[in-house]
Specification:
By secondary structure, this protein is of the alpha+beta class. 25% of the residues lie in helices and 20% in strands.
Length: 181
Amino acid sequence: AGITNRFMAPTDPARHSRGTLPLLALEEPTARMAANRIASIDPLTYNAFHLIMADARDAWVVWSDGNQVQRENLGPGIHVITESSYGAGEDKRRAYLLEHATRICNTSESPLDSLQNLLGESLEESFHGPCVNLPAINYGTRSSSLISWGQSRDARAFIHTKVPPVTPQWVDYSPNIREWE
């Protein structure tokens, strides 16, 4: 389970922390059940978000604009979810990442290193580069994750950096997901 904020959505400090939503999702035995649980919350309880949940069978995204909650099953393929996804803002960043990630995955035997480099690219001081860095307004990419679900357990990968990927400190959590049935 992973969460992003939602671009340009108003923030109400009286609402519960959206950071608790992945924990609620992880209380459920399956991603489908987690998506159902999160999709049933009162949207006025939390600030806007995009929450991604996956298990060995399914992957889901549940998002809220702060007024309504929606969900979608993520089928096989490459998915890029940013704070601007699902109508939250201009989709240039997601589109750039999806185009380049698709090319990398279709042309590389081992794409993870190239995907890590892609996430660390800073094209310009804007909201549209893979790694957003706008220090003047204290806004930017704070962390990144790559999850790959291959045909075999050995092909599964989950890597994460808790700092901006332009100065990455990637940690490999792949053994954790390789144990899943």
